[in-house]
Amino acid sequence: MMRLEYTDAQIGFRREIREWLAGHVPKEPLQSFDTERGFQQHREWEATLNSGKWSMVTWPTELGGRGSDLIEWLIFEEEYWAAGAPLRVNQNGVFLLGPTLMDYGSDGQKSRFLPRMAAGQDIWAQGWSEPGAGSDMAAIRCTAIREDDHYVINGQKIWSTRAVWADWLFGLFRSDPQSQRHHGLTFVLVPLNAPGITVRPIRQLNGLPGFGEIFFDNVRVPVENRLGQEGAGWHVAMATAGFERGLMLRSPARFQQTAKKLVQLYLRNRAAADRDPSVRDAVLRAWMDAEAYALATYRTASRLLKGAKIGAEASTNKIFWSELDLSMHETAMRILGARAELLPQAPQAGDAGDWIEGFLFSQAGSIYAGTNEIQRNIIAERMHNMPR
Ligand SMILES: Cc1cc2nc3c(=O)[nH]c(=O)nc-3n(C[C@H](O)[C@H](O)[C@H](O)COP(=O)(O)OP(=O)(O)OC[C@H]3O[C@@H](n4cnc5c(N)ncnc54)[C@H](O)[C@@H]3O)c2cc1C
After folding, report:
1. For residue 377, which atom of ligand 1 is closest to its CA?
2. Contact 26/18 with Cβ under 8 angstroms?
3. Residue 138 and residue 192: Cα distance in Å, rounded?
4. The pTM is what?
């Protein structure tokens, strides 16, 4: 049975983070972390968060965390989003690689990488996709061939979020050139300033250079940067993907906050919005879905605390949050009408704010972290035992 009330300790934890955020969240919004200046500002914010030991509350205290459980992490996220705190520029590090290092890293790797990650000293990018290996990630061709105590990397990665300014990349490479598909892949941690690496920016829908494509020309990386066993990289990467689609990358608080903003937008524009009753229905649906997602996540977290694994359920979550985000932003666009397209500072923009920015980004939700079509394949095969 699920407990629906918080303990005194959890209430105290909530109060502590709320007070800390009230004293530390920047009063002026930071520039976009898809700009060089904004990236630096967000890096500094990561350091500030770390100074309060809030970088990743679930990590052990000796690695920069607070040893919190998943329920406290959900509480942290609720307060973080409610306070309007900056987006996490190191999300690939703290939310994805961090937990993977906890499970697969040696003690040496944990103490080498995690405290610097928590402090924003190392910002991480993810290097999985390649031209010709996106949904079909097992088609990876970029090689990391062992030569004595180094891997020598050659090939190309693409769509690597903020790799233009990031310090490190965690990537999946083919270490056995004769291998096929999921076999012979190795998970390697690569410093992006290594000789032989060229990173080229790719502009995204909003015009900012949010992606990097990365070219490797005989890049030498020491064997000690390997995570997990040689040839077992697929297994490690699937653990990372579980964190990405499952709980960590997109906590429910993010969507609850958008739903709350949507209700406020609707109420401020109610007279015009009510001309089409389906707008009000969509606002209500958004609110209910965000709440339902939060409750479902609390249930999942409770199960995980008792030792369960998330498995294919991560795929149902990923579809749910990405479609919810899309529908909430579409509803905001309907309420705002032509005003949505104005820059926030335009005289006629009114309360259009950054809805258009969120709308553009929500288009990507069904693509990153594995497309929703691929998630539906996983659900069909692994949850419903349907034929491939
Ligand atoms: C905002 C954003 C951030 C990203 N960040 C990163 C990052 O940091 N690092 C990284 O490595 N990658 C990143 N990606 C890349 C992302 O992982 C890929 O775009 C995604 O996996 C899809 O691969 P693809 O673009 O090659 O499309 P394709 O695989 O070519 O797919 C094209 C279309 O075909 C469909 N399709 C393909 N195969 C099947 C199938 N078997 N059944 C049904 N439909 C299918 C897909 O669903 C899709 O609609 C990011 C992408 C976005 C949009």
Report:
1. 42
2. no
3. 23
4. 0.95
DSSP letter (8 states) at residue 36: H
Main-chain dihedrals φ then ψ at residue 152, nearest 5 degrees: -110, 120
Atom of ligand 1 nearest to the CA of 161: 8
The structure tokens listed for 210 are 């949010």
- For ligand 1, the distance from its centroid to the CA atom of residue 313, given in whole angstroms, is 19
pLDDT, tens only, 286-323: 999 999 999 999 999 999 889 888 888 889 999 999 99
46 is catalytic: no
Nearest-CA neighbor of 317 among 262, 236, 372? 372
Token reading at 138: 């097992």
User: Is the CB–ligand 1 distance for residue 129 below 6 Å?
Assistant: yes
Q: Is 171 in the pocket of ligand 1 (CB under 6 A)?
A: no
Q: Which tokens hold the place of 376?
A: 């539906």
- Which of 19, 244, 323, 381 is the catalytic position? 244
Centroid of ligand 1 to alpha carbon of 215 (angstroms): 19
Tell me which of 150 and 239 has the higher pLDDT: 150
Nearest to 296 by CA among 254, 247, 226, 352: 247
pLDDT in tens, 139-163: 999 999 999 999 999 999 999 999 9
Assess whether the C-beta atom of 208 lies below 6 angstroms from ligand 1: no
